[in-house]
Each structure stands twice: as C-alpha cells, then as structure tokens.
Amino acid sequence: MEQSRKEPVYPPPQAIHHELRNAENSAGHVMAKLHSMREINPHLAILDVGAGSGTISVTLAKAITDGHVTAIDLNPEILPRARAIAEISGINNIEFQQGDAYKLPFADETFDITYCHQMLTHLKAPQDALREMLRVTKPRGIVAAREGDLETECVWPELPGVLKFHKFAADMMSAAGGTPIGGRQLLPWALKAGVKRDQITVSYGTWSFSTPREKETWAQAMAERVRGGRLREGGLKSGLTTENDLEEMATDWEKWAQRDDASLAMMQGEVLIQK
Amino acid sequence: MEQSRKEPVYPPPQAIHHELRNAENSAGHVMAKLHSMREINPHLAILDVGAGSGTISVTLAKAITDGHVTAIDLNPEILPRARAIAEISGINNIEFQQGDAYKLPFADETFDITYCHQMLTHLKAPQDALREMLRVTKPRGIVAAREGDLETECVWPELPGVLKFHKFAADMMSAAGGTPIGGRQLLPWALKAGVKRDQITVSYGTWSFSTPREKETWAQAMAERVRGGRLREGGLKSGLTTENDLEEMATDWEKWAQRDDASLAMMQGEVLIQK
C-alpha cells in the first residue's frame, strides 16, 4: 500500500493484516442492503465501530458519495494512520474519532447503518456493544456485524509453527477476554441484545489467501506480529509463548508463503439486523 | 422435496442432506466461467462425477439448455432416485450412469466442464481421480472441484451430542480412507495430478444453515443417518461409536434445530483448473 508523506503513517504490526480489508471482502453481506437504502436516501449516515486503520470505512464512504461515514476506534493512536489512508484514497466524506463501543459518543437514532468487523469477538460483553449500536441506529436502519471465527481457520500445509501460531493467537484472544469462536455467536449475541429472531439474517463468509501476493502479505504481517508489537509482548509477558516458539512461528509463516500448494481460509460469521 | 410416483424414489438416509445441494449453493465458483463458455458454445458438454441424487447435475443442466450433462456415480442404487429428480424437474438434457472416478468410462477430451462436489475427499488417491477428470476434459475446458472441509465445521450451540457427531463423522471419513480436511487440500491434489500452479484458481465458500426450515431439514437428515443407514451400521461395526452415543447425537441434533440461537456452517475448498 502506498503511504502519504505525512507522519505518522506507518501501521503498527497488529494493523497490517487488518489493512487488507475493504467493504467488498469484509462487508459483502451489507452492500446489497446499502445499495437499496441509498436509492431511497443518497445521504446515508454510516457508523463503523472499531474501524482500526479505516480501510473498510473508506470503501464504505466511496459507496455513498452523497452520504457520510463516521469511523471510531478505541485506540487513538491508530487515528492518524486512518486519516492518512482516507487522504491517499481521496475520500472526504468521512471522519475518524476516538470512541468506545460500550459507550458510543452519539445520540440515539443517529445512523442509517451501524457496522463493525472483527470487534465484538474481542469484547467481554459483545451483547452490550450490540445494544449500543442498536441505540444509535435510526428506526428502519440496520446494524451489521462480521466477525472471524478463528477456530474455523483452515491452513495447508500444516507446518508446526503455523499450527503453533494458530493456538497461540486463540489463547491470546481468550486471555484478553474475547473468544476465538466469535463468528458462530453473532446470532446469540444479537438475541441477548434484545433483538427478535425475525429481525436477524445470519450468513457466513470466508477470508482466504492463496495467490503468491496474498500469501506474502499475510505471512509478512504474521511474522512481524510475532517478532515485534503487542502480540509478542503480551504473549511473552503472560507466559503463553516463548521466544523460541515465536521465532518458529515467524519462520514457518515465511516458509508457508513460499509454498506453491499453500492456502489459508477462515470463516466469518455475519449478521444483518433490521431495526 | 416432492417425489415422483415411480419407485424407487425415496432417498437413503445418507443422501437426504446431499439433496439440499444445487448449482447455486455448491458450484458458485464454476457458474461465471460456465456462462462465459456458454456464450461461445451453447452446446456445452458437462460431466458431474459422483453426482449422487443429481440435484447439482440437474441445476447445471438447467443452466445449459442447449448443452448436455452426464452424471455418474459409483453406486448404481442411487441412479433411479437421480433420474426421478431430473424427471420431476422437467430436465431432459441429462443422463445418469454408473461410473468409477478412477476409471471414467469416457474417451479423452470429451467434456467442456468436468465437475465434482464432495467426492475427492472420500478417496484414498484423489489426485488419480483429478488426473482422470483432466483426461476426459477438452483442451481449454475446465475441471472444477468443491470439497467440504469437515474440520472447519462451526456450530452453535455446542450441544454434546452434536460435537460427538462431528468427531464421529470425521473418524468415519478417515477410517474409510478419506479425509476430514479435504477442502484445504484441493490445491496440493491438483498439483500432484500434474497441473501447473498458474492453471489453478483457489477459492473458499461456505455451506450454512440458520433458518428454522434449513435447520430442521439438516437435523432430521443427521438424525436419520445415526438412527439408520450406512453411517450407523459402519460406526457400530467398526466400534467407532455406540448405540447410546448415536441416540445422544440424534436427540441433540433435534434439540439444536429447535433453538432460536442455532446455526451451523462449514467451509468448502474450491478449485477451478484451466486445462
């Protein structure tokens, strides 16, 4: 990805693989509904909760040129990176701000579409965040979520360091209060947030890598995460991994990317809630 | 599903869930290519290998009204059922015959598209079947496969009998010489069959159930499989399960289908090989 000349624009290691996301590959279940809503009202207001570097938010903003996207993240350090990506993309109908999914800094019934990806699965009480997302959504608006289900990860070849990484990543998610089986729980979380079953459409999508370029990008990102950054620090501090294991993981991700027969896929749970 | 008045038309328990398949939900990765090939040649010849009850074959035949589908299965007992389904569907441009994927009863370069679903994963030497599929395919034709990857199955709620079923089904696949991680191995199998990497497009799809009707159909099929039919017989004979366990599986599938918060998904590996 190209980078702006303004600083700070370099993504932290934990953000690189998230920046592969866009509306097409990570919000596909929302787009048909978005397009039909845009026909009726071109001035849609969209909220992206836990937007990270904002690569999905920016592509959502491209899809509603007469509308507006608000993208929030709990971590204020990612905001300059997100703003740089929007600027590089030439997108103006977007704003980024710090915000907590449990206490969204918006009035009731503000947005037409409230969206999140790979956010609820990190929370101790995902149903509370969904309730907040519903609160800030207009009547007849939609709340949409897409969350990876790490336990469905399917990788070939099954190199030892790659399998070790998978277990380590799942353990870290659980240790931080999230869950590696989030994708399959979007429906129960929505029901716990007070939504009726007939308001909810469930689907499943995938997230996969098989071309040399996709594999290299993914493997480099994973290697960087275990050689530096939050995942490494947290893993060593908590005793969930060792320096030797981390190096084995990085090396095997690099070997994996070089293999002609390698691919990786993970399932993503999806819900579309009609308010 | 409606049934013809001719006998034998009732599916055996192991076929019921396979009859949920059609070209849309099980050959999506092939359809764009099929449509572009049909533009050039409306008289396409398609081979469906391991077609079972032929529900995918029939929908492929619908997509090429001026073409012809040949559907084969190793088990001759399923052929009357497949013919009945084609007849009910009003499809004439199709024929069903007995045939072995390892020794396809066709001359070299006979078909424009050679397809299989949930077939290679049951074989001891899937690369040999792929080599046969390539043999009977015309130059510039395509070989397409889609295979479930059972280990990616993602189910909620995680009822004990349902988890037990998952392990039992995987053990039975392995015991019969197949693999529960077939979906992720389509690429290595194609390479072993002698295909070059740049002739192969890899993708992943899903197979999921979340509406009351989908869940009931799936759960009933699974309950029937463990209360009667080949899976039950084989499981008891091999000692991989017990009567008590089988009854727990059936009961928990039925409970699962009744739950508002229940859903199930499994990833499917996909390859499209350009000959």
Give a quick summary of the entry:
The structure is a homodimer of 275-residue chains. Chain A is α/β, with parallel strands linked by helices and 275 residues long.
Account of the protein in words:
The structure is a homodimer of 275-residue chains. With 275 residues, chain A is of the alpha/beta class. Chain A has one domain (13-274): Vaccinia Virus protein VP39 (Rossmann fold), CATH 3.40.50. Chain A contains eleven helices and seven strands. Chain A has a seven-stranded mixed sheet, sandwiched between helices. Mean pLDDT of chain A is 93; it is low at 1-8. Chains A and B meet through strand 5, helix 8, strand 6 and strand 7 of A and strand 5, helix 8, strand 6 and strand 7 of B. Chains A, B: This is S-adenosyl-L-methionine-dependent methyltransferase.
Structural key phrases:
methyltransferase activity (chains A, B); disordered N terminus; globular; seven-stranded mixed beta sheet; Rossmann fold; homodimer; SAM-dependent_MTases_sf (chains A, B); alpha/beta; 275 residues
Q: CATH topology of chain A, what is it called?
A: Rossmann fold
Largest contact between chains: A-B, 30 and 30 residues
CATH class category name of chain A:
Alpha Beta
Structural class of chain A: alpha/beta
Low-confidence stretches of chain A: 1-8
CATH architectural name of chain A: 3-Layer(aba) Sandwich
Give the quaternary arrangement of the chains: homodimer
Most strands sheet of chain A: 7 strands, mixed
Number of helices of chain A: 11
Shape of chain A: globular
Q: Into how many domains do the coordinates of chain A divide?
A: 1
In CATH terms, the superfamily of chain A is Vaccinia Virus protein VP39
Q: How large is the radius of gyration of chain A?
A: 19 Å
β-sheet strand percentage of chain A: 15-25%
Query: Mean pLDDT score of chain A, rounded?
Result: 93
- In the sheet with the most strands of chain A, the strands line up as 3-2-1-4-5-7-6
**For the terminal residues of chain A, how far apart are their CA atoms?**
37 Å
